[in-house]
Amino acid sequence: MSDQNLNSSKLPLIAVTVHPTKYNGTQDPESWLQDIRFFCRLHGIDDEEEIVSFAILKVDPIIFIPEKTSTFSAFLRALKNHVTYTVMSQAALHNLRKLKYNSNVEMSDFISNFLSLCRSANVTSLEEQKSFLLGSLHDDNIRNILANKFRPVEEFDWVIKVFQGIIYEYPLHQIRYGSKITLKHCVTGQYLSHGEHKPVEPGSPYSTVFCNGSKPRENEIWIVTSPSGENKNSGDPVHFNSVIGLCHEKSRSNLCAANELASRDVWTSTGKDSNCNWFVRRHATESGYLNENNGVWAIGDIIILEHVNNKLPLFTQSHSEYIDSHSNSNQEVLLDGDGLEENNKWYAEIVGQ
To answer: Core-most of 16, 20, 122, 171, by most CB within 10 Å?
Structure first.
């Protein structure tokens, strides 16, 4: 069978089949041409010039295609030279900047949409792609974790794998209402601790807390609870700048401090009131830390615990003047500092992880 007869036998098949959509400048040219080529291939048409001739017929007349355009590269160049391509690319870039990851959306759908927008916006730089992925996240914590993980990665496939892995793993590291944690002081390496309830004076509901030990034991386990006067849902993540309570698991008493600026003592209390409420704040070296309320508290985050009533942060250090009188190894815990210094720094570990 001659080529002429072969081609004439193929063309009617196109006529009776639903055609690809017309190109009007709102589609990605390369993706659209790929669909055209696939359509033609289904009908046995492989010749480049013949495919281009058919594709030209599917282009909106407002888009100029030079005469004698017969190759894929020349055809794509003509589509991209038209102003509609610039508008489409800028729109894709705008949508890429607005794109936000939503845990309710399948990861595969999010990545597919991200890749499509990158291609349409002509974003090919790996560093730009990393930046847009980081910008899609609402949580500062996970963004910082990923930024560090992305830094040495030089292949985009690995960027996606790292992104997916951290997104799936991160919720396991979030601290939530009901979490059992230990609180480690960054400077001394010791843990916030409390033994049996021993009243500071007979009949008192208050008992001393301290820092002790380089390895956490049962006396160092605290439960993150709702603050006094509120009822948080168990399992909800704790956001920075929110208010929590801390209940000592073994004694069932609550971390508290006096509602007076003159008193800087920190105790546990068998009762619970507003003196048992604490702000969880992200530690920073500048006073603007009070405004940094994005993100969820997670394992290893450097924090301060600020007493809600008198606005002073939890503090300890290893100087002899802060040694508890009941034990040569216990470091006294009190309220002191401005929240910016090293001795106000703590971080949490979830018990059992």
So the answer is: 20
